[in-house]
Amino acid sequence: YSAIKTISGYFYEDENDGTKTKVANEAIDNYCHYGDTSEKGNCNNEYYKMTSSGVIHLLEKLKNYGLDDDKLAEYGILWLIYKLNIKKNNNFAKLNDFYTEYIETNNDYNNKINGNDGLTYKKIIDKKNDLMDMDINEIFKLEAPFNILYFLYHEISDQKSFCKEYSKYAAKFVDQFKKLNEDSNNIIDSSFSQILSTLLNDHNNLINKYCKGSCSFSSISQVPPKKKPVESSLETSEGTSSSSSTLNTVIPVLSTFAIPVFLVVSYK
């Protein structure tokens, strides 16, 4: 999560009006290469172009930790949806809208992550292509537990600080995770389910490191994902309505809890 924190600090929006993007590290311009021109290295201070560049930066840094391509894709998507979710006036209906405009057209995604071998950055993101046509608000559900973990990994330094000051945030993660565990998108072999599993492992690693013998907080388990149902068109329509109802309940909680907390620390 230290690499994620580093890239997040490369650029951000002005907190006063949300219309001006500010650059804290000019390296964010390194992976902005659009169109037929050979010119590269300038995102023109455009938030979404910098977000696209940031995904490549993140994949590059995380590769140094020995993560496989699937895990790289998961963290790349999590960071991407975080940056999209905090952007005011974000009008993307699906993740594919961003993908088409800012990933497919960015020539740097055609470069291979290991130089002459391995997958291109685009092929890594493509490993999670089943998320691309989902309603983006459904994908944003994953951002809240990621946000909480990001905050905890950034702030916690020892067992005492966790038990005294931050265990309530871990408890909030558990609440959000349990809801997502029962979510209709949590289907076996889906990217949604795989990302949820990764978030769970990150949570449990944190708990095992800072809570053993020091405070009454334990790791949690994941309920096996649902098998993909065979539904009639009527049942599918009813399921969509139910999912939207659940989303309307969950999202206000996330916007008042997780995001403000994260914004406090992300630009230190």
Automatic annotation (TrEMBL):
Residues 224-246 are annotated as: Disordered. Residues 231-246 have a biased composition (Low complexity). InterPro entries: Yir_bir_cir (IPR006477). It holds the Pfam family Cir_Bir_Yir. It comes from the Eukaryota. This is CIR protein. It comes from Plasmodium chabaudi chabaudi.
